[in-house]
Amino acid sequence: MAYRVLVAPPFFGRKNAAPFDLLREAGHEIVLNPHRRTATEGEMCALVTDVDAAIVSLDPVTEKVLSYGPRLKVVARAGVGYDNIDVEAATRRGIFVTNVPGANSRAVAEMALGLMFDVARRIAVMDKRVRAGVWKGHVGFELGGKALGIVGTGNIGRLVAELGAKLGMRVVCWSRTPDRNWAGAIGAVYVSLDELLQSADVVSIHIALTERTRNLLSQRELSLMKPSAILINTARGGIVDEDALFEALHEKRLAGAGLDVFADEPIAQSRLLELENVVLTPHVGGLTAESAHSISMGAARNVVAVLGGQTPENAVNVLAP
């Protein structure tokens, strides 16, 4: 049976048509997001009205959006985090929610490392100066020999830890589910979150955003960090209290930050935009040519499975029989 599949992410199948081919070979009709960007809630309401599956990136899939999609059988997240999807509402409506764990781990890990280098050496700042005709450098610091604090040791956190260790960084970790065998193998140690914040020269965040982790790093936690330390966040913006972070950076109680994610996206009116000691990127850490293909293929496979009457490989919810 032919179904209609909404493909919302602009990157889906952009470099390689194989994900589209997979959907078409299964007999499904593809409906593209005409906006060619992350859709708004209102736009998503209109887009899901007559489709049976939706492949989304950071597009909001709220309870309201789901109410406009009576035919929906699956919402496939083209990525890993799914805090933009109301999973409970989807489950109540008998809609599978899927993701593609691990598909963009390398991309996010390398982005985190890139932000570390940029903030530590003020690369973006110096680039801006040179373009403005100002020949003025900045004395930064080397990452080798410094303490790298990893908040969350899932797929991405582990990879960042391993890359940091190869640079000669001393790795300390915090996780609610520590894996001491893995840590021992790379020379890392698990400590409490407070100990990590107090000892690390670079703190890199790699946990999911939940009600439990929202504003996990606020004024008290940021005050524990060294004035010479930098904070890297490629996870979710809501994990860090942005007002507290601004104050710490503005008052030089924290040396710098590299942020790929924000509490409200796209970022528009934020005091962080005023600061020179923070590097800002538009939530693209997980998106490279390689990861986009892997993510797209994984999302397409999940959709084909559900529409074919099968349980998807990467379901994040369990539906009643």
Write up what this structure looks like:
The protein has about 325 residues and is an alpha/beta fold. The chain folds into 2 domains: about 120 residues, NAD(P)-binding Rossmann-like Domain (Rossmann fold); about 180 residues, Rossmann fold (3-Layer(aba) Sandwich), CATH 3.40.50.720. Helix content is about 35%, strand content about 15%. The strands form 2 sheets. A 7-stranded parallel sheet has the order 8-7-6-9-10-11-12, sandwiched between helices. Helix 10 links the parallel strand 9 and strand 10. Helix 1 packs parallel to helix 12. It starts with a strand and ends in a 14-residue tail after the last helix. The mean pLDDT is about 95.
Top keywords for this entry?
Rossmann fold, 35% helix, 14% strand, five-stranded parallel β-sheet, globular, 321 residues, seven-stranded parallel β-sheet, alpha/beta, 12 helices, 12 strands
Largest sheet entry: 7 strands, parallel
- Could you state the order of secondary-structure elements as H and E? EHEHEHEHEHHEHEHEHEHEHEEH
Secondary structure tally, helices: 12
The strand line-up of the biggest sheet is: 8-7-6-9-10-11-12
CATH architecture of the largest domain: 3-Layer(aba) Sandwich
Percent strand equals: 5-15%
Count of folded domains: 2
- CATH secondary-structure class of the largest domain: Alpha Beta
Q: For the residues shown, what is the average pLDDT?
A: 97
Backbone structural class: alpha/beta
Instruction: Please report the total strand number as a whole number.
Output: 12
* CATH superfamily grouping of the largest domain: NAD(P)-binding Rossmann-like Domain
- What is the CATH topology descriptor of the largest domain? Rossmann fold
Helix content: 25-40%
Task: Give the N-to-C terminal Cα separation.
Answer: 22 Å
Shape: globular
